[in-house]
Amino acid sequence: MAAIYSGIYLKLKSAKTPWEDKIKLARFAWVSHQCVLPNKEQVLLDWVSHALVSYYNKKFELEEEVVEKLWAYLDNVIHSRRLQNLLKSGKTIGLSFSIAQVINERLSEACSQKTQQNIGTVLSCSSGILSTPSLSIIYTAKCELLVDLLSKLSKLACQQLASDDTVGSQVFSVLQLTFAQYLLIQRQQTNPNRVFGQVTSHLLQPCLLLRHLLTVRSWTQADDNHVRQHLSREIRNQVETLLQAGLFQPELLSSYKEELLPEQELQVKKKGALKSLLLPVNTVQTKLSSGFCEPALHGAVVAGSVSLLYKLFLDSYCKAENHLACFHMLSRLFSCLRFPALQQGILSPADWSTELLALEQLLNLVLSSDIYNVASDRIRHKEIQFGFYRKLAQMLVSHSQASIPAWFRCLKLLMSLNHLIIEPDLDALVASAWIDAEVSEPRTKKPQEALISTMFQTYSKLRQFPRLFEEVLTVICRPAADEPRLPVFSAGLTGKLRECLLELPPNQILDILCLCVEKCQTLIIPAVERSADMALKLLSLSSVLHAFLFNMRSLDDITPSPVVLRTQSLLSKMQKGIIQPLMELLQAPRREEEKSDLWLRKASDSALLLVYTWVEVDTLFGVSCSKYVSPAAEIAGAVTASAARRWGIPAFLSGVEEQCWERVMELANSFASTSKYCLELLTLQKIKMILMQTEADLQALQHAAALILESGRSSMSRGESEPWDGDISAISDLTYPTAHWHLVISNLTILLPYLSLKDVEYIANVLLETLVLAKAQEAAADQEPSISIGKISLGLMHSSFLPEMMVLHCTFLTSLIHQFTRVLPSAARDSVDLPLQQLSAGNIPWHEEILASCRPVDPLEAPSENKLLKDELSLSRKTLEKVAQCIILLAKNGRPLILKESQLESCLGLLEIASLLKLDSLLPSDCTRCFLVLLSLLANTRASASCSKPLLLKFLSTCFHLLRCLHAGRNANSVFKVFHASDVLETVMTSQLTASKFFTDVLTVPDWAQYLQEVQAFLEDFLRMIVERRQSVRLNLEKFMSFLVSCEPDIGAAKSKGWKNWNPAAGQLLLMAFTTLCHVITLYLEQLPQKKLQSTDVLSALLEPVVLQMVRTVEQGLQSNTQNQPLPVTFIPSVTTLLKADLSHAVKRGWQKEPSGFLEQPRIKLYQKFYSQILRELPCAGDNLQFLQSALQFLTVFCSVPELYPGEETAVTVVFAIKKLLAGAAVTTQVIQSVETELTEVLVQLLGNCSAEEFYTIMRLVLQGLEMKNIWQQKAKEVLSAVTLMKLLLSCPLRGDKEKAFWFASPQIITALAVLLKAAPSFLNSFHRLVVSVMHEGRQKGDKGNTDEFEVILKCARLVERMYTHITAEMEDFTVFSAFIVAQYVTELQKVTLHPAVKKHLTEGIYRILDLCIERDIKFLNTSLPAGVREVFKDLYNDYNHYHKAKKQGEEKYTA
Questions:
Q1: How far apart are CA 1352 and CA 676, in angstroms?
Q2: Is 266 helix (H, G, I), strand (E, B) or coil?
Q3: DSSP 820-880
Q4: Which of 224, 227, 490, 626 has its CA 20 to 30 A from that of 527?
């Protein structure tokens, strides 16, 4: 042994031994037990450390490869399990400080060379050293080494982040570990000045740069996920913690005050001598200003760092007595920003954004920390803060940056601090931030509106709204700085204005309106002719008048008379001083070329906007206020009665003749803008006024309604439009169609009764066209906040009003069917005999059914009218019958229309539009038409071979889904007036079996399963309708069954029908059809009362052959299924249905009398085969939700008859399979939740039909999973499986011995549950059910009951109390659930009166949970609990406060 020792040690020390051999020997010595050296591990670590230190100290030369192997050896040793085990056993092993210096130097080289190659091993070594306490002492004992390491690692991380290379995790993992070690050491330092020096000298700059780069990096998927999602955030938090603890310790406050508050310096010196203090602010400023990174980055890094440093300063020192120091810190940090250079134009304008963001963050901190007290600043500090903020405001207003959102936010913050900061620059602010600001991007518009809203709220509260709007009107009226301004009020600002106007005194609002009218009269109207600038100003002022008059509080009978008189005077001035001169100006004859002038267009817009505003407001005031006298009453006699009756508007306009008004209308109609829209609004107002009269003029109403529709027809036909923000004064050529359509659709209920059928058809056509476009642009439209034509149309389709507009509903359906015909192949469009062409034919009176009900009929002409109506209705019905026969004939002849993929997509789009119709509210004829359209699409069309199969499946699924929607309607039976039910079923199945040959290779995709589900649902609904109608039930169902039998592949008739090319898809369709037929018949057999023997006999006679045919189909399908292949999922519901039918049939035959012969033996073998196969596949099917649900449904039916179990199998076998399933790796909480209902149903059958012995075995099986050893062995899935089963068992009704067995096992159940506290929701769900059971069994009973049972219940109650105590120990996980637990408890407590002994334990337990409840929880419980339960809770809570809480506080008082 000595030879081994001396030989290896001498060779390692010998200069003659090659380094390669030395490294091999060292590796051998480390891992080999044959090499026994005294203190071997320390010797080997010292050897490799000495070798590396000597190399880097230039004591000898080594090849690069050898050096890397030495590092690798050191890394392997540090991370070896052997070393960790030795250290755990208490052995002392260490490293020399020199190796830490070498590591730091190596990282420093990597930083300087800007390459991170070949340092992975060094990083790994440092990671191992820092994570091993006995080794990390080489850094923790010499803090300067740790600081140096942290600095170097930060720089390395910055290099990675600044490059375009992919970010890896190694550097950041080591960096995070180093931060953690340093923060631990930093907290232990007793000299704050020394820590401050360390941080500012070595760490401040790299940490700030690192934080900035982590924040601004655009992470990619290629970057390490752990760094991107976790380490980056954690390191940023560590940087903030380091800076706060290093720069802003409580002991340094005096130094900060000494530097920031120079006026205190003399006072301090008078009190006594002090040591010279640090200049911490100056030190930090110097570090920020020095170039510690690339010049291009420096400004952004400083801007981001300033707000961070100020936040940390406030977090440490922000108290009332330090507010002045906090302000001075703000001003010093603000000086680090680059605003002087920006104001001088030295820097790029793009740099404004960075600096403004920093300023915004600083001001946010000032506002949230409340360091600016206006009164204190004025009285005690000579407004030093106010002066600083005023300079800021002047700088911001004089250097407008309206394209930068942060500029608006900074101004808003200054306004929030003190409105007087902004007040001297109010006019400049209104101009630059509002009236003259060119803001169109949503991200900038939102902060702009927030600033203006703050101005509104501030001046409204101060009752200085007129002062604000005096400036606004002044800015509007002065020469414009640019081209046409944006509208004064956006939709958002209008809403904020409304809120303020509702709170303002009416006289202040009238002051603003009078000022606006005065400016129009004196400044604008005299100079508006031929002046585009003045016309634009007039439109802005008109929009202000409109906004105020439309959003102020209306006059009413309690409005003071002076306010009413002043309002009348205002409207009179508005009419005579503005509207009348504008009318005279506009009615003057113009040459054609003059009519396109901008000034004339804007003057027309202003005039019509003011006229509409005046008329609307005047009408409203007249209706709502009896004291109001309209100015129009003074001149009412000046206009002829015919003019007032025909149009109504000239009656309000003094001196304007009807002929002149028509000239104005003609001019306004030539502009697709505000004026034309206002004419439509005035026409609508006229309709409302006529309708308010006792005798409405029908002709005038029809004329006005047609006029509104005609007004926008040409603009709508162009198909060019843009979204509209709702601002009436900002309607352009492209937004007018949107505004017009909005007006029409919004007032459709008023207009529709007076529109001709042609006009209704026009609306339906436009509605359909816009919906088609809206569907194509749906994704983009959702992100657009403005109103678009597509959104308006979709809104109508989704509204509940459309079905009530029966004429439009019917007309839209006709238009939709006609659109389907346009999609068809060109050859089919010319054929008038095809179903879709006939269903949209223009010569068929489809709407007579609706129009007849509301058409007035002369009594003398009633007979002839009735005859004409009957003829028209007969014509439409005959057409529907003809179309029905045509669809069936075309389907039988097999001559479908072939659709290309683009045509299929168009049809699918139209079907999606059809789904927006309320199909269940269609009239009988429309319901039939819609049914025929869908049936024709299914039966008379085929997709071309090149079509996408998922697209075709979606098309077919949508058709079937819409057919089901029709079935749900009140007129669904109208279909049977044109069809025999069996013909529909045969047509549908023929078409789908023919189409199925396209789907043989997509039978496993979700689209196929969805399609099958839709077909099945359609068949089920239709078959139910047949049975419920009770007309020719047997005939229809027998015909359908015969057809299905004829489709079987081995039947001779099948060959004659062309089913030679049989495929699995057709097989699944057939099986599904048989299954559905069997299911419907079985269901109705179960529901029919015994008295209806005739119906029972009919359905029973049908069921027998259906069952036999289903057995054949299933057996054929199983034969084609290869051995060891999983069961096709589609077969399982079929066999389940078959078993249900068999059992139902057996029940009807009374098999209970002879249990042994209730099923035929071959059938029993089929079910047992399925059962065995399902049990084999069940444990591995955790990720196949469809299989799980179907399989569990089969087991529910199968296990309801214990006689069906094969051989020696029992209910235990099934529970064991379910337990294995729940313990499977693929089973997640979501899967369990999805099949919880099915699992419960299975267990109800299993436990209800099993013997007591089998139940005991099942309980033992469950309890095995709850054993503590499963937790120790980390078998979490086993425990989850057992807990889930226990939760399900608690949902099952138990009686007799089974109930007793469960109760005797309850104590064991509760004690295992304690280990699941970490899974809070799952645990609470299970635990609550146990608590409910304990409360139910522990209630007071008349007799004393079984003593043994009561002892078990009492033991359970004690355990429940202990469990509540466990929960309070896990407070972090359960705090959010505490109110929920209490609510559940008191809800159950209300239902029972507990035995005193049981109540004592449960009450003590729930008191523990109440300890977790905070005041908000108690308020929530008091308000949300039902009345009776609330009283129970109040009693419980009062007892808790009186007994438990008082006792607990007393104990805490005397607890050390």
A1: 86
A2: helix
A3: HHHHS-HHHHT-TTSHHHHHT-TTS-TTHHHHHHH----GGGHHHHHHHHHHHHHHHHHHH
A4: 490
Task: Give the whole-angstrom CA distance, residue 154 versus residue 147.
Answer: 11
Q: CA 851: distance to chain centroid? A: 45
Q: How many CA atoms lie within 13 A of 619 on its CB side?
A: 18
Q: Given this model, what pLDDT does residue 1170 score?
A: 83
Cα(162)–Cα(293) distance, integer angstroms: 11
Helices (H) and strands (E) in the chain, counts: 75, 2
The packing angle between helices 351-369 and 295-317, to 10°, is: 0
pLDDT class of 13 with cuts at 50, 70, 90: confident
CB contact at 8 A, 1033 and 1098: yes
Residue 811: partners with Cβ closer than 8 Å, 6 or more residues away: 757, 760, 761, 763, 764, 847
The enclosing H or E element of 460 equals: helix 442-461
Q: What is the SS3 assignment for 1287?
A: helix
In whole angstroms, give the CA distance from residue 178 to residue 189. Answer: 17
Taking the C-alpha atoms of residue 1453 and residue 715, their distance in angstroms, rounded to an integer, is 82
% of the chain beyond a pLDDT of 90: 40
**Mean pLDDT score, 57-70:** 86
3 state SS of 1451:
helix
Tens digits of per-residue pLDDT, 71-106? Answer: 999 999 999 988 888 888 888 888 989 999 999 999
Highest averaged pLDDT of the listed ranges 39-48, 401-410, 1209-1218: 401-410
pLDDT digits (tens, 9 = 90+) for 726-735: 899 889 999 9
Phi and psi (nearest 5°) for 626? -70, -20
The H-or-E segment that residue 740 falls in is helix 736-746
Helices (DSSP H) in 318-350: which residue ranges? 323-334, 339-343
Evaluate whether 897 touches 945 at the Cβ level (below 8 Å): no
Residue 719, sorted as left (phi over 0), alpha (psi -120 to 50) or beta, turns out to be: left
Please tell me the pTM assigned to this model. Answer: 0.77
Which string of DSSP letters, residue by residue, matches 166-209? PP-SHHHHHHHHHHHHHHHHHHH---HHHHHHHIIIIIHHHHHH
CA dist 1225 and 1223 (Å) reads: 7
